[in-house]
Specification:
Bound molecules: flavin mononucleotide
Oligomer: single chain
Number of helices: 7
Shape: globular
Strand order of the largest sheet: 1-2-3-7-4
Order of helices and strands: EEEHEEEEHHEEHEHEHEEEEEEEH
Distance between the termini: 32 Å
Radius of gyration: 21 Å
Largest sheet: 5 strands, antiparallel
Helix content: 25-40%
Strand content: 15-25%
Structural class: alpha+beta
Length: 356
Protein backbone atom coordinates (compact mmCIF):
# COMPACT_ATOMS: atom_id res chain seq x y z
CA UNK A 1 0.00 0.00 0.00
CA UNK A 2 2.95 2.37 -0.24
CA UNK A 3 3.06 2.80 -4.04
CA UNK A 4 6.72 3.42 -4.64
CA UNK A 5 6.92 0.69 -7.30
CA UNK A 6 5.91 0.43 -10.97
CA UNK A 7 5.74 -2.43 -13.46
CA UNK A 8 4.66 -6.08 -13.51
CA UNK A 9 7.57 -8.27 -14.68
CA UNK A 10 10.24 -5.59 -15.08
CA UNK A 11 9.45 -3.84 -11.82
CA UNK A 12 11.28 -0.94 -10.18
CA UNK A 13 10.92 0.83 -6.84
CA UNK A 14 12.41 4.21 -5.98
CA UNK A 15 13.49 5.50 -2.58
CA UNK A 16 14.90 8.65 -0.97
CA UNK A 17 14.14 12.30 -0.37
CA UNK A 18 15.36 15.57 -1.87
CA UNK A 19 17.55 16.50 1.10
CA UNK A 20 18.43 13.06 2.45
CA UNK A 21 21.90 11.57 1.97
CA UNK A 22 20.99 9.72 -1.24
CA UNK A 23 18.22 8.58 -3.56
CA UNK A 24 17.95 5.47 -5.70
CA UNK A 25 16.04 2.70 -7.40
CA UNK A 26 15.81 -1.07 -7.14
CA UNK A 27 15.09 -2.83 -10.42
CA UNK A 28 13.67 -6.32 -9.99
CA UNK A 29 12.87 -8.76 -12.78
CA UNK A 30 15.61 -7.66 -15.16
CA UNK A 31 16.68 -10.61 -17.36
CA UNK A 32 20.16 -12.02 -16.63
CA UNK A 33 23.13 -11.75 -18.97
CA UNK A 34 22.77 -8.13 -20.09
CA UNK A 35 26.00 -6.13 -20.14
CA UNK A 36 25.52 -3.36 -17.54
CA UNK A 37 27.91 -0.89 -15.93
CA UNK A 38 27.61 2.59 -14.47
CA UNK A 39 28.71 3.95 -17.86
CA UNK A 40 25.41 2.68 -19.35
CA UNK A 41 23.40 4.70 -16.83
CA UNK A 42 25.43 7.91 -16.39
CA UNK A 43 24.80 9.56 -19.81
CA UNK A 44 21.03 9.47 -19.24
CA UNK A 45 21.40 11.00 -15.77
CA UNK A 46 23.66 13.69 -17.24
CA UNK A 47 20.85 14.70 -19.62
CA UNK A 48 18.46 15.23 -16.67
CA UNK A 49 21.05 16.75 -14.31
CA UNK A 50 20.24 20.18 -12.79
CA UNK A 51 22.45 23.25 -13.11
CA UNK A 52 23.55 22.73 -16.71
CA UNK A 53 22.16 26.03 -18.07
CA UNK A 54 20.54 29.21 -16.78
CA UNK A 55 17.18 27.71 -17.79
CA UNK A 56 17.26 25.07 -15.04
CA UNK A 57 17.64 25.09 -11.27
CA UNK A 58 21.13 26.05 -10.09
CA UNK A 59 21.25 23.18 -7.60
CA UNK A 60 24.57 21.49 -8.47
CA UNK A 61 24.16 17.73 -8.30
CA UNK A 62 26.74 15.59 -10.10
CA UNK A 63 24.20 12.72 -10.03
CA UNK A 64 26.91 10.07 -10.07
CA UNK A 65 25.29 6.65 -10.05
CA UNK A 66 26.64 3.62 -8.21
CA UNK A 67 25.43 0.08 -8.89
CA UNK A 68 25.34 -1.76 -5.58
CA UNK A 69 23.91 -5.14 -6.57
CA UNK A 70 22.59 -7.36 -9.35
CA UNK A 71 25.68 -7.20 -11.59
CA UNK A 72 28.60 -9.64 -11.65
CA UNK A 73 31.46 -9.70 -14.15
CA UNK A 74 29.80 -6.82 -16.01
CA UNK A 75 26.51 -8.65 -16.55
CA UNK A 76 23.11 -8.57 -14.89
CA UNK A 77 22.59 -11.67 -12.75
CA UNK A 78 18.76 -11.65 -12.70
CA UNK A 79 18.77 -10.52 -9.06
CA UNK A 80 17.65 -7.05 -7.87
CA UNK A 81 19.75 -4.22 -9.28
CA UNK A 82 20.26 -1.46 -6.74
CA UNK A 83 21.18 1.98 -8.09
CA UNK A 84 22.26 4.78 -5.75
CA UNK A 85 22.80 8.51 -6.37
CA UNK A 86 24.16 10.68 -3.57
CA UNK A 87 22.62 14.10 -2.85
CA UNK A 88 25.52 16.51 -2.43
CA UNK A 89 24.06 20.03 -2.78
CA UNK A 90 21.22 20.20 -0.26
CA UNK A 91 20.58 23.61 1.31
CA UNK A 92 17.91 22.97 3.91
CA UNK A 93 17.93 26.57 5.15
CA UNK A 94 16.28 27.64 1.87
CA UNK A 95 13.18 25.83 3.07
CA UNK A 96 12.70 27.24 6.58
CA UNK A 97 9.57 29.22 5.47
CA UNK A 98 8.08 26.04 4.00
CA UNK A 99 8.15 24.31 7.38
CA UNK A 100 5.34 26.54 8.60
CA UNK A 101 3.35 27.48 5.48
CA UNK A 102 2.01 25.46 2.58
CA UNK A 103 3.32 26.23 -0.93
CA UNK A 104 0.31 26.26 -3.31
CA UNK A 105 0.86 23.85 -6.21
CA UNK A 106 3.16 21.68 -4.10
CA UNK A 107 2.31 18.57 -2.12
CA UNK A 108 2.87 20.33 1.24
CA UNK A 109 -0.76 20.57 2.36
CA UNK A 110 -1.77 17.21 0.86
CA UNK A 111 1.11 15.35 2.58
CA UNK A 112 0.30 16.98 5.93
CA UNK A 113 -3.40 16.17 5.48
CA UNK A 114 -2.57 12.52 4.77
CA UNK A 115 0.42 11.76 7.02
CA UNK A 116 0.20 14.54 9.63
CA UNK A 117 3.95 14.94 9.23
CA UNK A 118 6.26 15.75 6.33
CA UNK A 119 9.90 16.25 5.37
CA UNK A 120 9.57 19.85 4.19
CA UNK A 121 13.19 20.14 2.97
CA UNK A 122 12.83 20.62 -0.78
CA UNK A 123 9.50 18.81 -0.75
CA UNK A 124 11.04 15.63 0.70
CA UNK A 125 9.74 12.58 -1.11
CA UNK A 126 7.41 14.64 -3.34
CA UNK A 127 10.40 16.48 -4.86
CA UNK A 128 11.22 15.91 -8.52
CA UNK A 129 14.65 14.83 -7.30
CA UNK A 130 12.93 11.41 -7.32
CA UNK A 131 12.86 11.52 -11.12
CA UNK A 132 16.64 10.93 -11.20
CA UNK A 133 15.96 7.46 -9.75
CA UNK A 134 13.54 6.73 -12.60
CA UNK A 135 16.05 7.88 -15.17
CA UNK A 136 18.61 5.47 -13.67
CA UNK A 137 16.08 2.60 -13.74
CA UNK A 138 15.10 3.63 -17.27
CA UNK A 139 18.71 3.19 -18.40
CA UNK A 140 18.50 -0.46 -17.34
CA UNK A 141 15.13 -0.80 -19.11
CA UNK A 142 16.71 0.43 -22.35
CA UNK A 143 19.04 -2.59 -22.31
CA UNK A 144 16.00 -4.88 -22.34
CA UNK A 145 14.58 -3.22 -25.49
CA UNK A 146 17.54 -2.59 -27.84
CA UNK A 147 15.16 -2.83 -30.82
CA UNK A 148 13.36 0.36 -29.72
CA UNK A 149 14.56 3.93 -30.33
CA UNK A 150 13.06 6.47 -27.94
CA UNK A 151 13.17 10.23 -28.40
CA UNK A 152 11.51 12.92 -26.24
CA UNK A 153 11.55 16.62 -27.04
CA UNK A 154 9.63 19.75 -26.11
CA UNK A 155 6.94 20.88 -28.54
CA UNK A 156 5.57 23.83 -26.55
CA UNK A 157 6.83 26.25 -23.86
CA UNK A 158 4.68 28.94 -22.28
CA UNK A 159 2.00 28.39 -24.95
CA UNK A 160 4.50 28.87 -27.83
CA UNK A 161 4.52 25.77 -30.09
CA UNK A 162 7.15 24.49 -32.51
CA UNK A 163 6.59 24.63 -36.25
CA UNK A 164 6.20 20.96 -37.22
CA UNK A 165 7.58 21.74 -40.71
CA UNK A 166 10.83 22.91 -39.06
CA UNK A 167 11.26 19.66 -37.05
CA UNK A 168 14.92 18.55 -37.09
CA UNK A 169 15.97 15.56 -35.02
CA UNK A 170 19.55 16.88 -35.05
CA UNK A 171 18.50 20.12 -33.31
CA UNK A 172 17.19 18.40 -30.17
CA UNK A 173 20.56 18.04 -28.44
CA UNK A 174 21.92 21.37 -29.67
CA UNK A 175 19.89 23.63 -27.36
CA UNK A 176 19.09 23.52 -23.63
CA UNK A 177 15.36 22.82 -24.26
CA UNK A 178 15.45 19.51 -26.18
CA UNK A 179 13.71 21.56 -28.89
CA UNK A 180 13.61 20.16 -32.45
CA UNK A 181 12.86 23.59 -34.01
CA UNK A 182 15.86 25.98 -33.84
CA UNK A 183 13.77 29.14 -34.24
CA UNK A 184 11.41 28.06 -31.44
CA UNK A 185 14.42 27.38 -29.16
CA UNK A 186 15.50 31.01 -29.58
CA UNK A 187 12.00 32.27 -28.75
CA UNK A 188 11.86 30.01 -25.68
CA UNK A 189 15.08 31.56 -24.31
CA UNK A 190 13.29 34.90 -24.22
CA UNK A 191 10.05 33.44 -22.83
CA UNK A 192 11.80 31.66 -19.94
CA UNK A 193 14.16 34.56 -19.17
CA UNK A 194 11.19 36.93 -19.06
CA UNK A 195 9.21 34.62 -16.77
CA UNK A 196 12.14 34.19 -14.38
CA UNK A 197 12.85 37.94 -14.22
CA UNK A 198 9.17 38.56 -13.47
CA UNK A 199 9.31 36.06 -10.56
CA UNK A 200 7.02 33.78 -12.56
CA UNK A 201 7.23 30.46 -14.45
CA UNK A 202 5.83 28.74 -17.55
CA UNK A 203 4.50 25.30 -18.50
CA UNK A 204 5.51 23.00 -21.35
CA UNK A 205 4.45 20.04 -23.50
CA UNK A 206 6.84 17.11 -24.04
CA UNK A 207 6.32 14.66 -26.91
CA UNK A 208 7.88 11.20 -26.86
CA UNK A 209 8.13 8.82 -29.81
CA UNK A 210 9.19 5.18 -29.58
CA UNK A 211 10.12 3.60 -32.92
CA UNK A 212 10.66 -0.13 -33.41
CA UNK A 213 7.98 -1.34 -30.98
CA UNK A 214 6.82 -4.61 -32.59
CA UNK A 215 3.14 -5.22 -33.29
CA UNK A 216 1.76 -7.29 -30.41
CA UNK A 217 3.36 -5.69 -27.33
CA UNK A 218 0.71 -4.49 -24.92
CA UNK A 219 -2.38 -6.16 -23.54
CA UNK A 220 -6.14 -5.86 -23.82
CA UNK A 221 -8.40 -3.99 -21.45
CA UNK A 222 -6.97 -3.52 -17.95
CA UNK A 223 -3.29 -3.35 -18.91
CA UNK A 224 -3.67 -1.58 -22.24
CA UNK A 225 -0.41 -0.15 -23.48
CA UNK A 226 -2.20 3.23 -23.50
CA UNK A 227 -3.23 2.94 -19.86
CA UNK A 228 0.20 1.73 -18.72
CA UNK A 229 1.82 4.67 -20.51
CA UNK A 230 -0.74 7.14 -19.14
CA UNK A 231 -0.24 5.81 -15.62
CA UNK A 232 3.56 5.96 -15.91
CA UNK A 233 3.61 9.45 -17.41
CA UNK A 234 1.00 10.81 -14.99
CA UNK A 235 3.17 9.61 -12.10
CA UNK A 236 5.90 12.11 -13.11
CA UNK A 237 5.90 15.29 -11.02
CA UNK A 238 4.02 18.26 -12.49
CA UNK A 239 2.38 16.23 -15.31
CA UNK A 240 -1.27 17.26 -15.61
CA UNK A 241 -2.22 15.72 -18.96
CA UNK A 242 -1.29 12.78 -21.18
CA UNK A 243 -2.30 12.23 -24.82
CA UNK A 244 -1.71 9.15 -26.97
CA UNK A 245 -1.50 9.84 -30.70
CA UNK A 246 -3.89 12.65 -31.60
CA UNK A 247 -5.30 12.52 -28.08
CA UNK A 248 -7.97 15.15 -27.43
CA UNK A 249 -7.76 16.37 -31.05
CA UNK A 250 -9.14 12.96 -32.17
CA UNK A 251 -12.46 13.95 -30.61
CA UNK A 252 -12.71 16.74 -33.18
CA UNK A 253 -12.04 14.47 -36.21
CA UNK A 254 -14.49 12.32 -38.17
CA UNK A 255 -14.28 8.54 -38.57
CA UNK A 256 -12.69 8.76 -42.00
CA UNK A 257 -10.14 11.44 -41.09
CA UNK A 258 -9.18 9.69 -37.85
CA UNK A 259 -8.71 6.28 -39.53
CA UNK A 260 -5.18 4.97 -40.01
CA UNK A 261 -5.72 3.41 -43.48
CA UNK A 262 -3.76 0.26 -44.38
CA UNK A 263 -2.27 -1.05 -47.60
CA UNK A 264 -0.35 -4.32 -48.14
CA UNK A 265 3.39 -4.02 -47.57
CA UNK A 266 6.18 -6.05 -49.22
CA UNK A 267 6.93 -8.26 -46.20
CA UNK A 268 3.33 -9.32 -45.49
CA UNK A 269 2.94 -6.60 -42.88
CA UNK A 270 0.60 -3.67 -43.49
CA UNK A 271 1.76 -0.22 -44.49
CA UNK A 272 -0.17 2.37 -42.47
CA UNK A 273 -0.96 5.61 -44.26
CA UNK A 274 -1.45 7.63 -41.04
CA UNK A 275 -0.86 7.29 -37.28
CA UNK A 276 -3.65 9.14 -35.50
CA UNK A 277 -3.83 6.31 -32.93
CA UNK A 278 -0.23 6.80 -31.77
CA UNK A 279 0.77 3.23 -32.62
CA UNK A 280 -1.73 1.50 -30.34
CA UNK A 281 -5.08 -0.18 -31.10
CA UNK A 282 -7.11 -2.12 -28.53
CA UNK A 283 -4.28 -1.61 -26.05
CA UNK A 284 -1.81 -3.45 -28.31
CA UNK A 285 1.02 -2.01 -30.40
CA UNK A 286 0.39 -1.97 -34.17
CA UNK A 287 4.06 -1.69 -35.12
CA UNK A 288 3.80 2.01 -35.88
CA UNK A 289 5.71 4.57 -33.76
CA UNK A 290 4.21 4.87 -30.27
CA UNK A 291 3.50 8.57 -29.66
CA UNK A 292 2.77 10.15 -26.27
CA UNK A 293 2.50 13.80 -25.25
CA UNK A 294 2.56 15.07 -21.68
CA UNK A 295 1.54 18.50 -20.39
CA UNK A 296 3.61 19.90 -17.52
CA UNK A 297 2.28 22.69 -15.38
CA UNK A 298 4.32 25.85 -14.70
CA UNK A 299 6.74 25.63 -11.77
CA UNK A 300 4.85 26.27 -8.55
CA UNK A 301 7.87 27.73 -6.69
CA UNK A 302 7.94 31.37 -7.78
CA UNK A 303 9.18 34.63 -6.27
CA UNK A 304 5.81 36.32 -6.77
CA UNK A 305 3.91 36.10 -3.46
CA UNK A 306 0.93 33.68 -3.51
CA UNK A 307 -1.87 33.53 -0.95
CA UNK A 308 -1.75 30.52 1.35
CA UNK A 309 -2.26 29.36 4.92
CA UNK A 310 0.19 28.32 7.62
CA UNK A 311 0.19 25.02 9.53
CA UNK A 312 -1.75 26.94 12.20
CA UNK A 313 -4.50 27.66 9.64
CA UNK A 314 -3.82 31.43 9.57
CA UNK A 315 -3.80 33.32 6.25
CA UNK A 316 -0.39 34.35 4.96
CA UNK A 317 1.48 34.92 1.66
CA UNK A 318 4.42 32.84 0.46
CA UNK A 319 7.27 33.69 -1.92
CA UNK A 320 9.26 30.57 -2.72
CA UNK A 321 12.94 31.38 -2.55
CA UNK A 322 15.68 28.82 -3.16
CA UNK A 323 16.78 27.31 -6.46
CA UNK A 324 14.08 26.26 -8.91
CA UNK A 325 13.48 25.34 -12.53
CA UNK A 326 11.71 28.29 -14.22
CA UNK A 327 10.07 25.73 -16.57
CA UNK A 328 10.01 22.20 -15.16
CA UNK A 329 9.18 20.78 -18.61
CA UNK A 330 12.73 21.47 -19.78
CA UNK A 331 14.22 18.83 -17.49
CA UNK A 332 11.26 16.49 -17.89
CA UNK A 333 12.14 15.26 -21.40
CA UNK A 334 14.76 12.71 -20.17
CA UNK A 335 12.31 11.59 -17.47
CA UNK A 336 9.55 11.01 -20.03
CA UNK A 337 11.99 8.98 -22.17
CA UNK A 338 12.92 6.87 -19.14
CA UNK A 339 9.26 6.23 -18.31
CA UNK A 340 8.60 5.15 -21.91
CA UNK A 341 11.56 2.71 -21.68
CA UNK A 342 10.34 1.36 -18.32
CA UNK A 343 6.82 0.72 -19.64
CA UNK A 344 8.04 -0.87 -22.88
CA UNK A 345 10.60 -3.14 -21.17
CA UNK A 346 7.84 -4.39 -18.89
CA UNK A 347 5.47 -4.91 -21.84
CA UNK A 348 8.12 -6.82 -23.81
CA UNK A 349 8.67 -9.24 -20.92
CA UNK A 350 4.91 -9.56 -20.30
CA UNK A 351 4.37 -10.37 -23.97
CA UNK A 352 7.17 -12.96 -23.84
CA UNK A 353 5.59 -14.52 -20.73
CA UNK A 354 2.25 -15.09 -22.45
CA UNK A 355 3.09 -15.47 -26.12
CA UNK A 356 6.67 -16.79 -25.92
C1 LIG B 1 12.30 17.43 -13.79
C2 LIG B 1 11.40 18.20 -12.87
C3 LIG B 1 11.91 19.26 -12.13
C4 LIG B 1 11.10 19.99 -11.27
N1 LIG B 1 11.63 21.08 -10.61
C5 LIG B 1 10.82 21.86 -9.85
C6 LIG B 1 11.31 23.04 -9.23
O1 LIG B 1 12.49 23.39 -9.35
N2 LIG B 1 10.44 23.79 -8.49
C7 LIG B 1 9.12 23.45 -8.36
O2 LIG B 1 8.37 24.17 -7.72
N3 LIG B 1 8.62 22.32 -8.93
C8 LIG B 1 9.44 21.53 -9.66
N4 LIG B 1 8.92 20.40 -10.23
C9 LIG B 1 7.52 20.03 -10.00
C10 LIG B 1 7.23 19.58 -8.57
O3 LIG B 1 8.08 18.53 -8.15
C11 LIG B 1 5.76 19.18 -8.44
O4 LIG B 1 4.94 20.14 -9.05
C12 LIG B 1 5.33 19.06 -6.99
O5 LIG B 1 6.07 18.03 -6.37
C13 LIG B 1 3.82 18.75 -6.83
O6 LIG B 1 3.48 17.59 -7.51
P1 LIG B 1 2.45 17.58 -8.74
O7 LIG B 1 2.73 18.80 -9.55
O8 LIG B 1 2.80 16.31 -9.47
O9 LIG B 1 1.07 17.59 -8.17
C14 LIG B 1 9.72 19.64 -11.11
C15 LIG B 1 9.21 18.57 -11.86
C16 LIG B 1 10.01 17.87 -12.73
C17 LIG B 1 9.44 16.73 -13.54
Amino acid sequence: MSFNSFGHVFRFSTWGESHGPAIGAIVDGCPPGLALSEADVQPWLDKRRPGTSRFTTQRQEPDQVRILSGVFDGQTTGTPISLMIENVDQRSKDYSDVANAYRPGHADYAYDAKYGFRDYRGGGRSSARETASRVAAGAVARLVIPEVRIRAYLVEVGGDAIDRAAYDDGAIDENPFFCPDRAAALRWEAIIDQARKAGSSVGAVVECVAEGVPAGWGAPLYAKLDSELASGMMSINAVKGVEIGDGFAAARLTGETNADPMRPGNDGKPVFLANHAGGIAGGIATGQPVIVRVALKPTSSILTPVETIGRDGAATDIRTKGRHDPCVGVRAAPVVEAMMALVLADQKLLNRAQIG
